[in-house]
Structure formats: C-alpha cells, structure tokens
Amino acid sequence: MTEPAALSHTRASELLPWLINGTLAGREREAVEQHVRACIVCRRELKDQQRLHAAVRARRTVDVSVEAGFDRLDRELDAVPGAAPPRWRIRYDTAAPFAVAAAAGVAVLAVLLWFTPLPNLDRDDYQTVATPPAEGALLDIVFVDETTAAQMQDLLDDIDGEIVAGPSELGRYSVRVAGNQPSRESLGDLLRSLSTDPRVRFAGPALADVQP
Amino acid sequence: MDQGLNVRPARARFSDDTADLALLERIANGDRNALRQLYSTYYHPLLRFIYRITGRLDLAQEGVNDVMLVVWRNGRSFGGRSSVSTWIMGIGYRKALKLLAASRRWTDRFAGAPFDEIIERSDSLAEQSDDRDLRDLLDAALRHLSAEHRAVVELTYFYGCSYEEIAAIAACPVNTVKTRMFHARAKLKKLLPALGRDPL
Does ipTM come in above 0.85? Predict the structure, then answer.
C-alpha cells in the first residue's frame, strides 16, 4: 500500500475538527493522521479541539414541546390550505394599490429635489468613510487567493485586528482594528501598508458597520 | 488507526435519509401526517441550531415553523442534490441569519461582556471549574463569534457534519468553511484559555 501524500502543517491543522468529528475519510484522513503523528503542535491542537468538541456537545439542548410548535404550524396551514400560493403573490395582490401610490409619491419627490439647491457642506459637518468609529476602525480586506488561513491570522495579529464578519461571496472580510480612536493619519499609514502586503488584494475603510 | 492519536469518530445523526425521502414524497402530495412526522424528527435539531445562531428561543421557534412551511410548499421541488437533512438545515441556516439580521435592527442582544472580562473570568474559574462553568463560559464566548462562525462550530462539533455538508448548508465554498472554522478556533482559544488546559 502506498503512503498518503504529505500534507502541509497549515492544511493538516485546518482539517483537525473533521478528523475529530469522524467525517474525514480515505487518503485525506490518513494524510492528516500521518502529519499529526509527526507534529507536536498539531497533537496539542488536537487535544484542545477534542476538549472544545466535548464542551460543545455537552451544551444544554433547548427543551420545548414539539406538539405546541406543530399545532401553530397546523393552524397556519389551515389558514392557507393545500398547495398555497407563494407568499409574494399574496403580498403583491394586497400591496399593489399602495405600490402605485408610493411610486407616484417618489416621482413627485424626485421632481422637487431636482429643483432644490444643494446646501453648502462644511467639511467638519460630515464624516468620511475613513473617519474612525468610536471603538477602533473597521476595515474591508480581501486576501489574495493563495493566502492560507494561518497567514491571514499572522497578518491580523500584526495589525491587532480581528475578523468581525465575512468572508462575503466576493471574499471580503470586515476587520476591526483595536485601539480607541486611531488617528486618520495612522489609519492611512495602515491602509498604505496593507495595500502593499503580498497577502492582500484590497484593503480600505469599511463601507458599512457590522455587528460583532 | 493509531492508538496514540486517540481520535474517536463521533458523528451525530438525527435522521435517516431514506425515511426522510419517503416522507418528503408524501408531503409533496399534501399528506399532513407525513409533515407531522418530519416535523417531529427535525424540530429539536432545527430549534437548537437556529437558537445557537440567533441566541433567542422565540426566534428559533418562529424559524422552525418558517423552515417547515418552506418544506411543505417546496417539497416537490427537492432536487436530491444533497441529503434531505442537508437541504433542511440549509433552509434553517438562511432563516436563522435573516431572523438575526431583522432582530438586530431592534435590539442588541449580543452585547455581552468585554473580551477581557471573559478571559479574566475564565482564568479565575479554571482552577475550580466544573463542566457547567465551562459550558457557561463557552456560551458567552460563542456569542462573540459572528453568526456564520458560530454555525460552523455548531455544525462541526454538535451535528458532526463534514466540511462538504457544511458548505452545502451554508451555500459557500469548502475553503470558506475551513477558513471560518480556523478563525473561530483562534478566537475561542483567545477567549477561553481554560479550554487549552488539563483537565477540562
């Protein structure tokens, strides 16, 4: 029997949770096991993750009656029996008169706004997207495809940042950089530094705040 | 299997795909009893999963019924590209994220203790902690992960899903699943140093 292909430390480490939950199979499982046997860091991580696995499985399960829940669903189905029409159609039918009125209102508003002069905006009266929020700055970062999870973590450690959302479908992460009220200059330096980092494809101030 | 690794496969399966398919076929023909059976099978797994993502029981209960309503209406369109459980959990995942986003417009239920406080509590409790203490700390720590990261941890460690199944449930590439899990692990380790100590 041939030996499984050697796995890099990063790849093996990424797969440890699925070695623990028993879903890795075949060559992939053999390759991870082979790496773990030889890697003390992964052996320690395996133990830590086994503890996390046990703790998650031991968390209390919500205990609520099935019957009460199904009765509510049953009543809802009785209200719309059989092959009910899709919800959008019901909503469209009832909302159509309001939609026409709303569209007319928007058209009138658009005409009024067209003839309204723009106010003089004082620079101090508005915030740019680069203005740091109260609790550290929020950045959007897209990593290059080849960047491994470990390299991403290294970069986050370097900038004292943490991922608060993402990745999006386009690979965008929202990263909060620690530190109260970083100055605009220091934020600019950080963004310049990130834009030249080979692990980063794009870095810029976040366009919208997110909940952690 | 190497004895030294002491890895014990532990998959949690709450349904049987063949039985689920048979129920789905009856549901597609308007059989309300089949819906009741499928509802009973999935009620607690879905309730827990949506509850773990949203942190609110009322939203979880609403989410379960929303999911089963989709199953009732769209059972006929199930394409069989995944198992029934993956399909249903995928609907549950999307419902949970939508419910969470809607609820956050009204309340900030996840504004928990600051990270430093959690780490401090974790440190001070490590010597005397029993499993319940640690589970409480784990609950608090998980609330500091994003909903997507919480879902990956829960699907991997509670539901025993493979990364391919999780990718199908979350409708994202497998590499995204691995990356989310990697970052969730790193953050939990930072928040819960007690998890890395002997004994648990």
Answer: no
The domain boundary residue, chosen from B62, B83, B104: B104
The distance of B17 to chain A (nearest Cα, Å) reads: 17
Write down how long chain B is: 200
Inside any domain, residue A85: no
Positive or negative: CA dihedral B104, B169, A175, B123:
positive
- Out of B146, B156, B186, the one facing A21 most closely (by C-beta) is B156
Whole-prediction pTM: 0.61
Test B40 with A83 for CB contact under 8 angstroms. Answer: no
Give domain status of residue A141, yes or no.
yes
- Chain A nearest C-alpha distance from B135 (Å): 6
In this structure, are B73 and B29 located in the same domain? yes
- What is the chain B residue with the closest CA to A84? B73
Calpha distance B6→B4 (Å, rounded): 5
For A36-79, the pLDDT digits (tens) are 999 999 999 999 999 899 989 887 776 678 888 898 898 888 88
Q: Tell me, what CATH number does A147's domain have?
A: 3.30.70.80
Element (H, E) at A200: strand A200-205
Residue B4 lies in a domain: no
Q: Is residue B1 part of a domain?
A: no
Question: Which one of B10, B36, B200 has the shortest CB-CB distance to A70?
Answer: B36
Determine the residue among B130, B178, B188 to mutate to test chain A binding: the one whose Cβ has the most chain A Cβ atoms within 10 Å. B178
Task: Confirm if A123 and A117 have CB atoms less than 8 A apart.
Answer: no
Question: What are A151-187's pLDDT values in tens digits?
Answer: 788 888 888 888 877 777 667 778 888 765 566 667 7
